[in-house]
Write a structure and sequence with these properties.
This protein has one domain: Alpha/Beta hydrolase fold, catalytic domain (Rossmann fold, 3-Layer(aba) Sandwich). It contains nine helices and nine strands. It has a nine-stranded mixed β-sheet, sandwiched between helices.
Amino acid sequence: MNMKKMLVTALCLTTAALAEDAGVKKSVWQGFEKLDFSVDGRAAWVVVPKAAAPGKPWIWRTEFFGHEPQGDLGLLSNGWHVAYVNVQNLYGAPVALDAMDKFYAHVRQTYGLNAKTVLEGFSRGGLFAFNWAARHPDQVASLYVDAPVCDFKSWPGGKGKGKGSAGDWKRLKEVYGFTEEQAMAYKLNPVDNLAPLAQAKLPILSVCGEADRVVPIEENTRLVETRYKALGGPITVIAKPGCDHHPHSLKDPTPIVEFVLQHAPTAK
């Protein structure tokens, strides 16, 4: 290669690197590099491990990033990336899933993350995790959900044992474009839409409190457990005796980390 071609090649590579870094803000989160950027106007970020595991596996926190992060930190220490895009107050509605599609495409193309992600749904984040998995079961390795909302009639609707949230219920109906009657008749809540996950044999881990008064376990995780097993889907439930909606996660995240690692995607 002559000098002119070498200079042109170097310039192209430099331009590509600058384009990749354009708009990316670098910081440190819990001792790991954090890359903040925007996808279609939504704040997003990826936390980078010290050394990436083969295939660049990643876990996708769908809500409440940074809350009870012990599982995420354990995975970062095992070479996993941790990712997030802000879809707050969209309650797993189609508009949220569309935004998640764009984020998935962006981090795959820009950072080379694995084709299969692990979806991590804390509380209302369960709606995003289950709904996106049902839309794209072939792009999911497993689900780790924590005190997850699995039926929006339970929360924020408050139509069962839980107290619900009137403000969130109003916003949810607006986001979905539902009347009260349409919301109550909706058949694509996670508890009703488990077949795509079961057909893909997606492993699910749910960690939740047996005494949850916000997202009652009987109306959410236990109902998913019964129906998912009936469909032949693999699910593990860790129910914490006497625990309410908080605290999330586990003091010792080893069972969570081991579950995710056990069902890690192949290196591709």
